Amino acid sequence: ARQCPAVYFWMILAWMHRHAVGYPVGGSQTFSNRLYERYTSLGGRTMLGKRVTQLLVRDDKFQGIRLLDGTDVCGDYLVWAGDGHTLLFDMLNQRYMDTHLRRLWNETQAVEGCVIVMLGLGQSRINTIESAGMRSNASGSVVELAQPLTIAGTRHHTTLFHVRGPESGLILTGDTASSCIVTLLFGSSYDC
User: Fold this and answer.
1) What is the 3-state secondary structure (H, E, C) of the chain?
2) Listed residue (45, 48, 26, 3) closest to 171, CA to CA
3) Are 182 and 126 in contact (CB under 8 A)?
4) What is the pLDDT of residues 5-37, one digit of tens each?
5) Which residues pair with 163 in a beta bridge?
6) How far apart are CA 161 and CA 180, in angstroms?
């Protein structure tokens, strides 16, 4: 079985209890669309569905990226949204690994990642879920799943279940006044 320090889950539960975990009410699509529109209006170009295999560096300066199909794309800046191991070991081929970083990677136990699923549900759906015995307190509850769920090769029998709402900014046809956010949390070693 994989291990994860309990403090990681205590931290998440504490944030949920204090209502300190943020998310865009109504979803993040509008925010993403506006970023895209602004970026493209300034001459930016996007390529979706492409996998990056390497960062191109010359004289310790970022030059661009290499795609899976072998295409090189030049650029002035890089915003890295991946994990540190992939960046240092795969994208940069350990080029910038010093003794300190090697020791950290070799001696530090990594914390397992997680998949968070957030669903907007109307109160009628919440009532159905709660009538099946899944109730959420202010911090969330660990519940047993009716059927195991497999995510990235890992079978899950339980999940952290949390209901937050009602959310006035969440628009659900026929149930808008009492729509809620349901959060499900699963541990996962999924590598994007």
Assistant:
1) CCCCCHHHHHHHHHHHHCCCCCCCCCCCHHHHHHHHHHHHHCCCCCCCCCCEEEEEEECCEEEEEEECCCCEEECCCCCCCCCHHHHHHHHCCCCCCCHHHHHHHHHCCCCCEEEEEEEEECHHHHHHHHHCCCCCCCCCEEEEEEEEEEECCEEEEEEEEEEECCCCCCCCCCCHHHCEEEEEEEEECCCC
2) 26
3) yes
4) 677 677 777 877 777 766 666 667 888 889 899
5) 182
6) 13
- Identify the residue whose tokens are 């800046």: 77
How far is it, in rounded angstroms, from Cα 145 to Cα 132?
Answer: 11
Q: Tokens representing 112?
A: 């397992």
Sheet holding 61-67, edge to edge: 52-58, 61-67, 72-74
Can you tell me which residue has the tokens 């669903």?
A: 119
Q: What percent of the chain has pLDDT over 90?
A: 16
